[in-house]
Design a protein that fits this description.
The protein has 356 residues and is mainly alpha-helical. It folds into two domains: 1-143 and 168-178, no CATH class; 199-356, no CATH class. It has helices at residues 2-7, 20-76, 84-91, 106-137, 145-167, 173-189, 205-240, 254-287, 295-315, 321-345. The longest helix is centred in the N-terminal third of the chain and has 57 residues, at 20-76.
Length: 356
């Protein structure tokens, strides 16, 4: 399997318009990216392990010291020590959950920096794989399940790499690199398709517009999904009480994580809305109808409805953010089902997986 994929030697006649040499380099870059992302995932795991107990203890110590200093200032200023001001001091300042942030340990900072550097390398390799595949076939490299999966993984990696350092999202790396690595593995070992020309129905400018936006939407939704998972874990930890020994105590508050996840899911929903509209326009040009109740069309609409329900629930008074987050997670599960189960087992006008 490895040799066949790496050298791009098909069992049938080779398409003369495809550069098998470039396809081989593309596959080599993809295998290299998987190896690099595996190292990055282990480094992010090491970062979380180093981040946990030591930083929590330092946070608690810093919080107690800050509280004592603030209390002395209040007493010195003649303020009562048993009023609301002192209650606010006990609760902490500057964060939604009352915790005072502390700098990570040198070991945690080192592992985070190394993990991000390795992630940048893995991202460059998977992007190179996509570009080489596109040049090899002289078309947008997302004409089948394999190419779409690789392009989607590349989109997630690029988005995370662009924002991780600025937002100090090293703690999120494990929850992003893990799914990226899993996607690349499925693409290579379950969805791999020999490079070839597009089927006639896909030879349209709308392939670039519709599928590109869909890839971006799924990439953004993946970040929102990862943040939602972390939010639920953090929320549960807060309700149980802030104990020591877990990296969760060092993360932003649950409220802040939920707002960030909501923002990313909102962007993903907007992009998915455009995907749905662009797909209808393309369908009219290709099949003379905007809507044909094709399985892919139906599931694309189902995903849109679920994310719309999430947005509505999130904006409705009386709905707990945690319940709304579960709706968003259900929407992302439907995205995965739409890409895998529907593509592989549902016959229709969108049967372009390359595996049938």
């Amino acid at each position: 399997m490895f040799a066949e994929v790496l050298t791009a030697t098909p069992a049938v006649d080779v398409d003369p318009t495809v550069s098998t040499t470039l396809v081989g380099y593309s596959n080599l870059a993809l295998y290299s990216a998987m190896a690099v992302f595996t190292i990055a995932m282990l480094l992010f795991a090491a970062h979380l392990a180093a981040l946990g107990p030591e930083r929590v203890e330092r946070s608690a110590a810093g919080s107690r010291g800050s509280t004592r200093r603030r209390s002395r200032e209040l007493v010195g200023a003649g303020a009562p020590t048993d009023g609301p001001s002192q209650d606010a001091v006990r609760a902490g300042e500057g964060d939604d959950d009352g915790m005072v942030a502390a700098e990570p340990s040198p070991r945690a900072r080192k592992s985070a920096g190394t993990a991000l550097t390795v992630t940048y390398l893995g991202t460059a390799l998977v992007v190179a794989s996509v570009v080489l595949r596109g040049v090899a076939v002289m078309r947008p490299p997302w004409g089948n399940m394999f190419e779409f999966a690789v392009a989607g993984a590349a989109a997630v990696a690029v988005v995370y790499s662009a924002l991780a350092k600025r937002n100090k999202w090293e703690w999120l790396g494990l929850f992003v690199v893990g799914p990226v690595l899993l996607t690349l593995g499925l693409a290579l070992f379950a969805f791999y398709t020999e490079a070839a020309e597009l089927v006639p129905a896909l030879r349209s400018v709308w392939l670039v517009i519709h599928v590109t936006v869909a890839i971006l939407a799924i990439g953004v939704m993946t970040i929102g999904f990862s943040l939602g998972i972390v939010y639920l874990a953090k929320k549960r930890r807060e309700e149980k009480g802030m104990g020591k020994g877990s990296f969760l105590e060092t993360l932003p508050s649950a409220a802040r994580l939920e707002r960030t996840a909501y923002g990313w899911n909102m962007v993903g929903f907007i992009l998915w809305t455009f995907t749905l509209i662009a797909g209808a326009i393309w369908a009219q040009k290709a099949w003379s109808t905007y809507w044909s109740w094709d399985p892919k069309e139906v599931w694309t609409f189902v995903i849109w409805v679920i994310y719309a329900a999430y947005m509505h629930a999130r904006a409705t008074a009386g709905w707990e953010p945690r319940k709304a987050t579960w709706i968003a997670l259900a929407g992302y599960v439907c995205v995965l089902l739409n890409f895998t189960v529907v593509n592989l087992y549902a016959s229709g006008l969108h049967s372009y997986s390359g595996l049938k």
